[in-house]
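Slide 14.
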Amino acid sequence: MSPSPVPQPRAATVRGALEAELSSAPETGLTAKELSARVGISEKDVAGHLEHLEKSLRTGGAALEVIPSECLACGFVFKDRKRLTRPGSCPECRSTRIEPPAFRIR
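Slide 15: predicted structure.
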């Protein structure tokens, strides 16, 4: 069993660190798993922080862009989904093999 990565100490707040990571995100964006590893928080906490960050960004004139989840079995894209978490199953084929959403700031 490999040791779990030790989170680096943060100089900024969690949301500030998330904003910094998302500002420098590639075109493909960053998933919740990638963000949790970079910022040092649990993957489950990322969605809650992103919801609050989205509101803060709106007041500053920026926006959180969500690259939607996609079913790996049939290709269904969850473009109308409002929740920032990964869907449990595809409404078309019921597969649970779903690519998680990715995020970036525009």
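Speaker note: Strands lie at 30-31, 64-67, 70-71, 98-99, 102-105.
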